[in-house]
Amino acid sequence: MEVQQNDNILEQVTTSDYKYGFYTDIENDMAPPGLNEDIVRFISAKKEEPEWMLEFRLKAFRHWQNLSEPGWAHIQYPKINYQDIIYYAAPKKKSLASLDEVDPELLDTFNKLGISLEEQKMLSGVAVDAVIDSVSVKTTFQDTLAKHGIIFCSFSEAVREHPELVKKYMGSVVPYTDNYFAALNSAVFSDGSFCFIPAGVRCPLELSTYFRINAANTGQFERTLIVAESGSYVSYMEGCTAPQRDENQLHAAIVEIVAMDHAEVKYSTVQNWYPGDKEGKGGVYNFVTKRGLCKGRSSKISWTQVETGSSITWKYPSCVLMGDNSVGEFYSVAVTNNFQQADTGTKMIHIGKNTRSTVISKGISAGRSNNAYRGLVKILPGAVNARNFSQCDSLLLGDQCGAHTFPYIEAKNETSIVEHEATTSKISEDQLFYCNQRGIDTEKAIGLIVNGYAKEVLNKLPMEFAVEAQKLLAITLEGSVG
Amino acid sequence: MLLNIKNLHVEIDGKEIIKGLNLGVNQGEVHAIMGPNGTGKSTLAAAITGREGYEITAGEIWFKGTNIVDMEPDERANLGIFLSFQYPVEIPGVSMTNFMRTAINAKREYQGLPPVPAGEFLKMMEEKKNLVEIHSKLTNRSVNEGFSGGEKKRNEIFQMAMLEPSLAILDETDSGLDIDALKVVAKGVNQLKSGENAFVIITHYQRLLDYIVPDFVHVLFDGKIVKTGGKNLALELEAKGYEWIKEQHLFEA
Fold first, then answer.
1. CA dist A341 → A77, A262, A283, A337, A338 (Å)
2. Which residues, 6 or more positions from A461, have their beta carbon under 8 angstroms from its beta carbon?
């Protein structure tokens, strides 16, 4: 039922004609389908952006027009008609009156994940009373952060309130010329988050709970910028373990991180967008560009991701290790089931001396899905004594799914050491029967085995999300072994 | 009767391995099943526990008053059947503690009980570890991963102690054990023995039966129990080998 609903909404959103005339009425909440310079101007005007921001968008748009969609990833999908998509829609009003109107299947998943009632309402789009805990929580957070001089706000707010910072760093890690989807995002991004940690400040909060409360309705073209000044530290959690209702099929986000001398940024993602139904119909295309720049000496950026959702995932959270002694890490669990496709991995670009990177990737494929690890380790001539260790493991459930590994290694400095390990394994009948014989049913057993397999990565997640992520893995693979 | 197997026939890939087996086990009894290799001893254990690929083509397995032949393996386990595996598998990344807690809670859920409180569970772990003289660190490691042969077998008995089954089947638990490990395993079993539960000990050799004394010894040959006796039958087999049984059986057939 949920699937049908989603399809209907998608169809409505993508095929409906714009009824009210567009150029005359800027008060409308939705742009007509299609993309041209006027739409870009419309978005910018809607957001009351300054001229420089519009210029950035227009440059990106003009560049995008000259690009063609990349075709190298190990994914297949029907051609996207970019002129069918609506690029601006004002955040939807909460439309459901109570949880009774929400798809019971969705509620079931919420309960399995142990999500609180208030949050269930928020995530499923139920109107919540004006006075709720989250409002006070939000204020408390903002007070605490302000005390430390930390800026954490929506991207739009940052453009208004901190234009000098946005101008300085936006596009400095992922320029709009980077790739097709980055150009698209730069032209039409809806909103996102901005985070600035001043020198020497250790962010006292996991920037996760806050984000979770504020993440709803950021739109399909999200943009995040994190700047960590010298000696600062922040742990940032993106996304939500609960399945979010989402009406957008194409997601093209950008995340940029800059870390100065001795700064450390931990970025964790749990991605659980709608994966499509069991026949492979529907689902989100998640085409994301994430990159961190270790600009300063001894800076460190860690990416941890648990990817279980989306019908197609195309993302390579990367680290550019520019500062001497800087460290890049990538820990990933990507699960695909039914007809899902994932082409994900990382790029570790070693530029500075004594730079180190670690890549741990755990792919889990079930159903008829395809799961590819694609990773680049590049050691430039100046990267004396650079070190990389990569480990890519694939776990197969059943015999109709695929696991692929595409490691690229380019080492241009003789003092560097690059190690790559890869394994492919299956959950054996013996393991399942062993669990069954101890009273554990097959679904729980798969959850247990898969979580054991992914433990190395799950351990890197912030505590409060690790537990939910574990449950999520089990839920994603439900019904994958008959 | 706790377990009552009637005229059981079991096939693997269309080949009949168990050919009309009857066995009755009461609470408080220890049964030994002996026999040469390839006569169906492990197949019998697999059929009772419901392993996939072991097709029951005829017959019944009654356990606690229910014919369990169509029951899922996990349900049979939760009903109180435990198998100590001949070759326990490794489950990387899953700690013994987590595994045991999952198993105990699955059983409790089946019985309509809430999950076991953490404190109670840990206390129970300590208690049962002592029973089988398991090294404390073993339970922090992943299930059977990197365990020696002896450690794996002791770990099986440890799990049995934790789950407190009504019927425990020990499939060649003595194979690959040195005499000290064998004594530890036997001690564990003897301490768990009560008037409420029963043991079926599948073994090729008599030596385990020096330490766990059976009430009945059955000889399995060609998919059937061809001889049943007391504990002395095991000694007789040890002395005379299986040849005379084969001859006798073939002669009768």
1. 9, 37, 11, 8, 9
2. A268, A270, A304, A306, A469
Tokens of B16: 């009949």
Rg (CA), chain A: 22
B238 is written with which tokens? 């040890």
The nearest alpha carbon in chain B to A454 belongs to B93
* Strand bridging mode A264-271 / A312-315: unpaired
Angle, helices A442-453/A463-476, rounded to nearest 10 degrees? 130
Question: Contacts of residue B77 in chain A, CB cutoff 8 Å?
Answer: 436-439
pTM score, whole prediction = 0.79
Residues of B in contact with A458 (CB under 8 A): none
Residue A19, class by beta-carbon neighbours within 10 Å (0-12 exposed, 13-18 middle, 19+ buried)? exposed
Q: Name residues whose C-beta falls within 8 Å of residue A69's C-beta, 6 or more positions apart in sequence.
A: A80, A180
β-strand B224-229 against B216-221: which pairing, if any?
antiparallel
Instruction: Report the C-alpha gap between B173 and B161 in whole angstroms.
Output: 15
Distant-in-sequence, close-in-space partners of A147: CB < 8 Å, separation ≥ 6: none
**Distance of alpha carbon A472 from alpha carbon A243, whole angstroms:** 10
B89 and A428 within 8 Å at the Cβ level: the answer is yes
pLDDT, one tens digit for every residue, chain A (482 residues): 343 443 443 333 333 332 222 332 334 467 788 889 988 998 898 888 999 999 999 999 999 999 988 888 888 888 888 888 878 766 544 456 666 666 666 666 666 665 666 566 655 544 443 233 333 445 556 777 889 999 988 888 889 999 999 999 999 999 999 999 999 999 999 888 899 999 999 998 777 644 443 344 445 788 999 999 999 999 988 765 545 545 557 788 899 999 999 999 999 888 877 777 777 777 788 889 999 999 999 999 999 998 888 888 889 999 999 999 999 999 999 988 888 888 999 999 999 999 999 999 999 888 888 898 999 999 999 999 999 999 999 998 878 888 888 999 999 999 999 999 998 888 888 999 999 999 999 988 988 998 889 888 888 887 767 777 777 777 777 766 64
Residues of B at the A interface, defined by Cβ within 8 angstroms: 49-52, 72-74, 77-78, 82-83, 85, 88-89, 91-94, 98-99, 102-103, 106-107, 110, 142, 159, 163
Cβ within 8 Å, pair B77-A431: no
The answer to whether A334 and A303 have CB atoms below 8 angstroms apart is no
Closest by Cβ to B159, choosing from A438, A444, A453: A438
pLDDT, tens digit (0-9, with 9 covering 90-100), for A328-374: 999 999 988 888 888 999 999 999 999 999 999 999 888 888 898 99
Cβ-contact A72, A66 below 8 angstroms: no
DSSP A154-181: EHHHHHHH-HHHHHHHTTSSS-TTS-HH
Test A437 with B72 for CB contact under 8 angstroms: no
Task: Domains for chain B: give ranges and CATH numbers.
Answer: 1-28+55-70 (no CATH), 71-213 (3.40.50.300)
A220: phi then psi, degrees, rounded to nearest 5: -85, -20
